[in-house]
Amino acid sequence: xxxxxxxxxxxxAAAVAPAPAASGGLKAWLPLLVTIxxxxxLAFATTKFLILPKVLHARGDAAESEGxxxxxxxxxxxxxxxxGGKEGKEGKEHGESKKEEHGAKPENPEKGKEGKGKKQxxxxxxxxxxxxxxxxxxxxxxxxxxxxxxxxxxxxxEENKDQLLDLANTALASRTITDLEKPGSRNLIRSELIxxxxxxxxxxxxxxxxxxxxxxx
Length: 217
Hints:
This protein is an alpha+beta fold. The protein has 2 domains: 15-104; 116-216, Tetrahydropterin Synthase, Chain A (2-Layer Sandwich). Helices cover 63% and strands 14% of the residues. The protein has helices at 12-15, 18-102, 109-113, 153-159, 161-173, 177-181, 185-201; strands at residues 120-130, 139-148, 208-216. It has a 3-stranded antiparallel sheet. A hairpin with an 8-residue loop joins strand 1 (120-130) and strand 2. It is rod-shaped and about 175 Å long. The chain starts with 11 loop residues before the first helix and ends with a strand.
């Protein structure tokens, strides 16, 4: 048998030559494939372990700074509000003390008007006496208004009216024409009547006397 190969048959080396070409092509694409697979993994890991923690940390710092500023602002306004409340409380206490100082209004208005310190008046009218030394030919007619500040002054004068009229008649009947015509005679009579009435009613019961009539006939 002859070792001579037929003519036209491809050599053996040529039959196995394509295999290295295929192996070389896979190696050329391998880095690209690795990059495609690895890049998403790296991107995920970078986002999760590097970028996301930094973002969360930055947000936390911002929230803490805002909270601190709000707390400082609240603490800054709190003393003012407290001070305002204190001033309002002091104003209220001052108003209550002032109200207590002035006192409540009297329940009975009439009683308050006639109370102590309020001047009241009472009249003794048509006091007619003979002038002393005129032998009954001359007489003095007078009317007087009594002024006092004691509580129940009007009632007191009315209750003692007869006694006061008798005292006034006695004092006026002792005056002569000369006494009545002297300058300032009315002031002297006024002072004497106040003294006489206070002796009968009590000290300072009658404070003033006014002559509403004073005529000599």
